[in-house]
Amino acid sequence: MKIAIPTANGKLCPHFGHCEEFTFVLVDEKEKKIISTSKEIPPPHEPGVLPRWLAEKKVNIIIAGGMGQRAQSLFMQNNIKVLVGASIESPKQLVLDFLDGKLQQGDNLCDH
Does domain 2-99 have CATH number 3.30.420.130? Predict the structure, then answer.
């Protein structure tokens, strides 16, 4: 499974479309462990670009602080599950919490 997390300064970026980079975390779902992590700078933020780009990267899940409804819909069309309302933590901590079933999801930090 491949998880994408929008990041800035090594932590989750609260607004999905304005992140500095994406941290990609490859995990072994059965063993509940991280296999590898990598970072990439996304293409310029324009409607529909990030869903296509992340689908091409073979992402299965996105953990985000906030994301607009249109973006969430586009990700669903690309068979990418979206988890919003995550707290501003390190990608490693967010993924470990997700794997342990402890990922806290609060309010969507994006209102458009």
Answer: yes
